[in-house]
Amino acid sequence: MCGRQLGAPAAPSAVAVEPATVCPSCGEANSGRFCEGCGYDLVAGGAGWSAVVSADRAYFDTVSSTDEDIPFPAAYPVRVVRLRAGEVRIGRRSRSRGLVPEIDLTGPPEDPGISHLHAVLRTLPDGGWTLTDAGSTNGTTINDDPAVLGADAAVAIDDGDRIHVGAWTTITLRADGSR
Fold first, then answer.
1. What are the start-end ranges of the E strands in the chain?
2. Is the dihedral of CA 170, 173, 176, 177 positive or negative?
3. How far is Cα 76 from Cα 53, in angstroms, rounded to an integer?
4. Which end of the chain is more exposed for a tag (fewer CB within 10 A), N or C?
5. Is the pTM of this model over 0.85?
6. Cα 176 → chain centroid
7. Cα distance between residue 36 and residue 103, in whole Å
8. 3-class DSSP state for residue 3?
9. What φ, ψ does residue 63 adopt, rounded to 5°?
10. Sign (positive/negative) of CA torsion 99, 134, 82, 168?
11. CB proximity list for 164: less than 8 A, separation 6 or greater
């Protein structure tokens, strides 16, 4: 049996509840094996990479002067996506094109400046990552550099680098266990 029948009394539990632990990846308090905020494995520890997706007001302010019709979102929950080795596509889902990117930036709220296939992360043999703009309409920038990446040119990125796409979306690359 995988669950208790609704309305039935709970069986007494001999399992002790563990004290709350602070996740080293996102800082959220947790009491189970996996972080409720980002999915970090609190028992196994760092064993990979994550992408933290957020709305970035500072980035928006640098690009918003080009289009006054796009408002900054009132709410945008921070999302953490565990990265798997190989190729990780960044973009928006497209049913008609059969495209489901691993980092799916489909809203709400939807950042209108993100292409369906915006950019691609790829692992290197040494465990590092490269970022390639996939010919997006509005380009991709890294950290505080205003220069837009050339289409199809792979650029090495590292722990803590901020990938800017669209009008307000920033993806921060994190090696698990880093802050």
1. 21-22, 29-30, 49-55, 79-83, 87-91, 103-104, 117-123, 129-133, 140-142, 155-157, 162-165, 169-175
2. negative
3. 9
4. N
5. no
6. 13
7. 19
8. coil
9. -110, -10
10. negative
11. 56, 59, 140, 141, 142, 170
Angle at 145 between CA 57 and CA 151, to 5 degrees: 105
21/39 Cα distance (integer angstroms): 13
Q: Tens of pLDDT along 129-174?
A: 999 999 999 999 999 999 999 999 999 999 999 999 999 999 999 9
Secondary structure letter of residue 65 according to DSSP: G
- Quick one: tokens of 142? 């890294």
Which residues have a Cβ under 8 Å from the Cβ of 169 and sit 6 or more positions away? Answer: 53, 54, 55, 56, 105, 111, 113, 114
**Both tokens assigned to 65:** 């002067």
Q: Give me the amino acid identity at 88.
A: V
Sheet holding 79-83, edge to edge: 79-83, 49-55, 169-175, 162-165, 140-142
Residue pair 28/22 in contact (Cβ under 8 Å)? The answer is yes
Rounded Cα gap, residues 85 and 10, in angstroms = 42
The tens digit of pLDDT for each residue in 89-102 reads: 999 999 998 899 99
Q: Which residues, 6 or more positions from 76, have their beta carbon under 8 angstroms from its beta carbon?
A: 54, 55, 109, 168
Please report, as a single letter, which amino acid is at residue 38.
Answer: C
Structure tokens at 46: 């760092």
